[in-house]
Structures are given as structure tokens and as C-alpha cells.
Specification:
The protein is of the alpha/beta class. It has 7 helices and 5 strands; from the N terminus they run ααβαβαβαααββ. Helices cover 30% and strands 14% of the residues. Bound molecules: zinc ion.
Length: 229
């Protein structure tokens, strides 16, 4: 996977086209169209789209990926309702908050699956990621001031080489004391130009002490709940 150049976040139209940041219809006013989404919701409910949903994901899958609208796992992974837990942030990075979320779900799951594997976390970074903007010193400094963060920490948040960042994030997740060894972790890159996901590190290759991550177990219906924990 080739390393990408930092994204030019200036107002240079050519740079915008090159990075996919241009508006789909530049001449249209930038008015949010949330009413359209709510109309789709009413159609969804009327068609019973919400029926049969379960709280423990059917694919025993926990996806961590970017919030980029081109990178919606409901589309590129074909996820249906109840198929997977999904956390999305800038770059799909494994932050402390994301580690805490995985730990939370693991703790919930431990109540109903006392032994054996629980679920697999798939960390998926992507090509042309806007998080590459954090490699630009001017952008990074302004953003650090805006959110009150340490600029040096933000540099590590840039996604320029998604295969490399996905491996470092896997390592961060796997080495976190809060994450049970019973949680499998894998790393992948989604190519926005081909629509294909490439596995960089399969789950079985990333366990400590050479152990293999087994296939996640299936809890019985109705076992997962928040009330008893
Ligand atoms: Zn992205």
C-alpha cells in the first residue's frame, strides 16, 4: 500500500479535487437536508425495518472506522441492522475513548459468555483519509488551539499510510490492559477507489504469546442485557 502525501487543506480547488473534499454540487447552497433523512426514517419504520433487531451483533463484529461519508460500513461491508457494533471517528483511530468502548462491550459480554471468545474488533482505515490533514503543520496548530489539545499528540492522529496506522492502532488496542484476550482484533484498509477491503493483519496473527483468536462464540437469545450488570 503506497504512502500518501499529506492532504492540502487550503482552498486550492485543484487540491480539493485531488483529495475528494470538493462539494458534490459546488453551486448548491450548503443547506443541511436532514428532513430528507427523517422522511426516510418514516418509510423505514412503516416498512418494519426495525423489527427483529437484537442487541448482540449477528456477525459478532465490532467495527472501528472513519466517519467519512464514503466509508460507511453499512454499505461497503453490507452491514444490516444488528449485524455489528460500529464506532466511527476521524480516521477510525483507536483513541482512549474507543478502547473504553470496546472494554465496556467486553464487560457486558462477559456476563453472558463466561468462557471462550467473545467478538472480533475490525479496525478499518481507508485511502484518501481526511485525517491526513493533521500532517499539515498549519492545520494541526490551528486545530490544536481550537480544541485545546497538544499539537504533538495530534500529529500521531494523521492517517497518511492507512496500512501502517491500522497496525499501530491494533497494537494499541491489543496492548491495552482493559481489553480481554478473548476479544479478537484484526486490521484492514478500505480503498475508496476500488471499493475493496484489504486485510492487513488477520485476527489470528495478532494475539499475544502466539495464541490463536478463535471464532467468537454465539450467546443465546435474550442473554445480553444491561439491567443485570
Ligand atoms: Zn477518513
Amino acid at each position: 500500500m503506497s504512502k500518501q502525501t499529506p492532504i492540502d487543506v487550503s482552498l486550492n480547488p485543484a487540491a480539493s479535487r485531488a483529495t475528494g473534499f470538493e462539494l458534490a454540487r459546488p453551486n448548491e447552497p450548503g443547506t443541511p437536508k436532514v428532513d430528507s433523512a427523517f422522511a426516510r426514517n418514516r418509510a423505514f419504520a412503516a416498512a418494519g425495518g426495525h423489527e427483529g433487531a437484537v442487541v448482540f451483533p449477528n456477525l459478532r463484529l465490532f467495527v472501528i472506522t472513519c466517519l467519512d461519508p464514503r466509508v460507511d460500513p453499512a454499505h461497503f461491508l453490507g452491514l444490516k441492522l444488528s449485524d455489528a457494533m460500529v464506532v466511527r471517528n476521524v480516521g477510525g483511530r483507536v483513541t482512549q475513548e474507543v478502547i473504553n468502548d470496546v472494554a465496556f462491550i467486553a464487560q457486558i459480554t462477559e456476563n453472558v459468555i463466561p468462557d471462550g471468545p467473545m467478538f472480533e474488533v475490525a479496525v478499518i482505515h481507508h485511502t484518501q483519509c481526511g485525517a491526513g490533514a493533521l500532517a499539515d503543520a498549519t492545520f494541526r496548530r490551528r486545530y490544536a488551539e481550537r480544541i485545546g489539545a497538544d499539537e504533538a499528540d495530534l500529529r500521531d492522529h494523521a492517517v497518511l499510510d492507512p496500512a501502517a496506522t491500522v497496525m499501530s492502532d491494533m497494537e494499541r488496542l491489543c496492548s491495552a490492559p482493559a481489553i480481554s484476550q478473548r476479544v479478537a482484533v484484526s486490521g484492514h484498509v478500505y480503498d475508496v477507489l476500488t471499493g475493496l477491503v484489504q486485510t492487513i493483519v488477520p485476527a489470528s496473527a495478532h494475539r499475544k504469546n502466539g495464541e490463536t483468536a478463535p471464532t467468537p462464540a454465539t450467546p443465546q437469545a435474550g442473554q445480553i442485557g444491561f439491567a443485570s450488570s
